[in-house]
């Protein structure tokens, strides 16, 4: 349900609640009579039964049902309002910047506007519809000529608009030109290095040390904590009255381990603090404990996964299968005959495995308009499905139906069949003959397998590979005769494809923990923003019994 629909339903609920209260004396005589809402609309009735305005009167036992103690994501659209989060905005744990910096004040980000800038390896930034990027990050100490600068939504920042200090130029006689002979070279006889000077109210989410103390904005020193600055250009939900001290009501900053660990699930709260400021003017700063579940003898540590698990970011190796598909439809439409991926998206150049899910009614509206243009994607059976379709020209006039007078039409690409002499597999859409079918599943049933990853396809057949694509593991198969396989999604979880472990490279994520901006009520916890950060020290304590690291360090 989109935010806009949810708001309309909320207005309807409020009106219904007032109406119900007015009729309450008449209803007391018949406790067993069920509510008749919208002629028995089951979905709306279920929503009504869990709404705070009616639960105490009509459904007093719903509060005890555990299913409501769960998380769901509801990221605000950027047109509605924006939530800002900065970790260590005044330097390492809110006290100092870099080793040779001048110390920043502990209130450097109070009622100021700030933002972070993030460095990605050039050419790896890949945006999804929800604004998150799955590119490969680079150390912030890398000089500017070696990085793509982006904001937290993945939008590129021009260097002239950056708050980052200019690089320092050094004379280096070995340099012959840009990145020649090493990456620091920027010109003949000159090399560049990142400046140590950092602006205040900056995102230092890669500098967290759990052994350090931090300061509140009033100057009070606290042990084993970090500063977090937050802002929202709309009212922040803060509970008052009898719910002022209720931990199931209000807005909270929570620390979680993304994808969890063998010891905790992702929903486990490792640390939290309650937000008490309903209105922000610029950034507001608070402190988050870095102890593990409130235990002062255990600290969050530099936890890293060495195995590929659900939630891991991976890059596909060049040894992964290469498939040969029917001749591809020209993007500039020099010919209207060829194959293409479905679903297609207006903001995604490739579609198919790279097409994100539609997250709102606005996106569905834009997508519906886009589907009217050539080539046409059919309605797929499920939202998680992809397909390769082929276009074909109607040659004779009597082939053109009255319901679809267009000259070109779309159909599923033909599946591979064995050629007459038994020499391999092919179809009427393919130019070549191949010994095996593409192993990527039903979507690629019309494609053959190249004999090697580096082999060119026959004639006009289109060469397709997931080589160097970056995705997220969303499922792992049980070990069987073919060994463990990993379902990797390239579209933020909408669909996935299976790979062997040797075909995947585990990538280091942006952080080993996350700060969640969460609205809590008695029935659910709504995640409105996730902010990754990296604990760089201390090292985790070794679990000698299970042969792996604990997700904490003994202090």
Can you walk through the features of this model?
Residues 1-38, 59-65, 96-101 and 127-133 have low confidence and may be disordered. By secondary structure, the protein is mainly β. It starts with a helix and ends with a strand. The protein has a 5-stranded mixed β-sheet, with no helix packed on it. Strands 28-27-26-17-29 form a 5-stranded antiparallel β-sheet, with no helix packed on it. It has a 3-stranded antiparallel β-sheet with strand order 2-11-14, with no helix packed on it. The chain folds into 4 domains: 3-64, no CATH class; 116-200, no CATH class; 209-304 and 509-554, Sandwich (Immunoglobulin-like), CATH 2.60.40; 329-431, no CATH class. It has 4 helices and 35 strands.
Spatial order of the strands in the main sheet? 1-31-30-12-13
Main sheet makeup = 5 strands, mixed
Assigned CATH class of the largest domain: Mainly Beta
End-to-end CA span: 45 Å
Overall number of structural domains: 4
Count the beta strands: 35
What's the CATH topology name of the largest domain? Immunoglobulin-like
Global Rg: 28 Å
Structural class by helix and strand composition? mainly beta
Report helical residue fraction: under 10%
Mean pLDDT comes to 79
Sequence stretches where pLDDT stays below 50 over 5 or more residues: 1-38, 59-65, 96-101, 127-133
Strand % is 25-35%
- Helix count equals 4
CATH architectural category of the largest domain? Sandwich
Shape: globular
């Amino acid at each position: 349900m989109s935010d806009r629909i949810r708001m309309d339903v909320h207005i309807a609920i409020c009106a219904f609640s007032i109406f119900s209260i007015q009729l309450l004396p008449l209803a007391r005589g018949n406790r067993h009579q069920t509510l008749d809402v919208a002629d028995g609309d089951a979905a709306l009735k279920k929503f009504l039964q869990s709404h705070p305005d009616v639960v105490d009167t009509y459904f007093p036992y719903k509060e005890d049902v555990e299913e409501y103690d769960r998380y769901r994501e509801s990221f605000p659209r950027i047109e509605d309002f924006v939530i800002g989060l900065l970790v260590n905005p005044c330097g390492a744990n809110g006290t100092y910047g870099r080793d040779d910096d001048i110390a920043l004040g502990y209130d450097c980000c109070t009622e100021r506007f700030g933002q972070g800038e993030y460095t990605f390896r050039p050419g790896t930034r890949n945006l999804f519809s929800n604004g998150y990027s799955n590119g490969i990050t680079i150390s912030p100490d890398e000089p500017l000529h070696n990085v793509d600068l982006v904001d937290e939504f993945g939008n590129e920042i021009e260097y002239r608009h950056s708050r980052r200090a200019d690089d320092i130029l050094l004379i280096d006689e070995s340099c012959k030109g840009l990145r020649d002979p090493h990456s620091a070279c920027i010109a003949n006889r000159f090399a560049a290095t990142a400046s140590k000077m950092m602006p205040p109210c900056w995102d230092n989410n890669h500098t967290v040390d759990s052994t350090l103390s931090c300061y509140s904005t009033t100057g009070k020193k606290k042990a084993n904590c970090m500063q977090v600055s937050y802002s929202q250009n709309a009212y922040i939900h803060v509970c008052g009255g009898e719910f002022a001290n209720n931990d199931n009501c209000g807005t909270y900053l929570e620390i979680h381990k993304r994808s969890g660990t063998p010891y905790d699930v992702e929903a486990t709260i490792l640390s939290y603090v309650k937000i008490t400021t309903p209105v922000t003017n610029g950034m507001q700063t608070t402190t988050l404990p870095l102890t593990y579940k409130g235990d002062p003898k255990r600290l969050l540590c530099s936890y890293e996964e060495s195995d590929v698990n659900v939630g891991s970011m991976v890059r596909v190796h060049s040894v992964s299968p290469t498939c040969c598909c029917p001749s591809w439809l020209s993007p500039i439409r020099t010919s209207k005959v060829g194959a293409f991926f479905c679903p297609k998206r207006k903001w995604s150049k490739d579609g198919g495995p790279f097409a994100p899910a539609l997250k709102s009614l606005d996106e569905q509206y834009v997508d519906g308009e886009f589907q009217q243009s050539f080539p046409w994607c059919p309605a797929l059976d499920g939202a998680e499905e992809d397909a390769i379709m082929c276009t074909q020209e109607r040659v004779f006039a009597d082939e053109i139906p009255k319901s679809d007078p267009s000259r070109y039409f779309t159909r599923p690409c033909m599946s591979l069949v064995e050629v007459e002499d038994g020499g391999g597999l092919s179809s009427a859409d393919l130019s070549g003959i191949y010994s095996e079918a593409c192993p990527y599943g039903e979507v690629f049933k019309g494609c053959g397998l190249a004999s090697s990853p580096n082999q060119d396809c026959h004639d006009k057949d289109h060469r397709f590979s997931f080589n160097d694509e970056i995705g997220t593991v969303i499922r792992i198969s049980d070990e069987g005769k073919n060994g463990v396989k990993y379902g990797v999604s390239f579209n933020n979880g909408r669909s996935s494809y299976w790979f062997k472990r040797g075909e995947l490279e585990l990538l280091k994520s942006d952080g080993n923990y996350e700060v969640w901006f969460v609205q809590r009520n008695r029935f659910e916890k709504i995640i409105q923003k996730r902010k990754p950060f990296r604990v760089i020290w201390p090292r985790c304590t070794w679990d000698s019994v299970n042969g792996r690291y604990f997700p904490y360090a003994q202090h």
